[in-house]
Write a structure and sequence with these properties.
Strand order of the largest sheet: 3-2-1-4
Subcellular location: Cytoplasm
Largest sheet: 4 strands, mixed
Radius of gyration: 16 Å
Strand content: 15-25%
EC number: 2.1.1.63
Structural class: alpha/beta
CATH topology of the largest domain: Arc Repressor Mutant, subunit A
Keywords: Cytoplasm, DNA damage, DNA repair, Methyltransferase, Transferase
Shape: globular
Pfam families: DNA_binding_1, Methyltransf_1N
Helix content: 25-40%
Main location: cytoplasm
Number of strands: 6
Distance between the termini: 42 Å
Order of helices and strands: EEEEHHEHHEH
CATH architecture of the largest domain: Orthogonal Bundle
């Protein structure tokens, strides 16, 4: 059985999911891939993991680094799990590029090549937004792309982390990166 809880953030509603012990999902309501790891049968209740996650979010939305991470249970392909593990290592207030993630996978797996686009697909399917900080990933050119919650939310999250968002840009629809 899966469980859910609704959180109201300053930048939109958030649905949080759990298996009863750990966090399994965190999505902005209506975002791309919303609740794609959530069973159709779930129950909305308050659990200790939700209380801890809400505490984390309260601190985060005050513009502070929470300093702890709720218990997470990510589930995906080995490739996605590898990408999500790298995401979890991006420091608060810093960014990394899709290319840098692909280079890290090349290094770890001793590969000749890894597509930044494949990395982008894995980043976009991250089921635990914000806490697994996919919003900290940018294009090599400094473009703000690929956030399932929408670029405007990505910018707001970066501002909360005291990043200078003026150094980034939003590419025009259909432009190459």
């Amino acid at each position: 059985m899966q469980f859910t809880y609704k959180y109201s953030s300053p930048i939109g509603g958030i649905t949080i999911a759990s298996d009863g012990e750990s966090l399994t999902g965190l999505w902005f309501d209506g975002q791309k891939y919303f609740a794609n790891t959530l069973d159709s049968r779930h129950k909305e209740i308050i659990l200790p993991i939700f209380e801890q996650t809400c505490e984390w979010l309260d601190i985060y939305f005050k513009g502070q680094c929470p300093g702890f991470t709720p218990s997470l249970h990510l589930s995906g392909t080995p490739f996605r799990m590898m990408v999500w593990e790298i995401l979890q290592k991006i420091p608060y207030g810093e960014t990394i590029t899709y290319k840098e993630i692909s280079e890290e996978i090349i290094r770890q797996k001793n590969l000749k090549y890894m597509s930044p686009q494949a990395v982008g697909g894995a980043v976009g399917h991250n089921p635990i937004s914000i806490i697994v900080p996919c919003h900290r990933v940018v294009g090599s050119s400094g473009s703000l792309t690929g956030y399932a919650g929408g670029v405007s939310k990505k910018v707001e999250l970066m501002k909360l982390e005291h990043m200078d968002t003026s150094v980034f840009f939003v590419p025009m629809q259909g432009s190459a990166l």
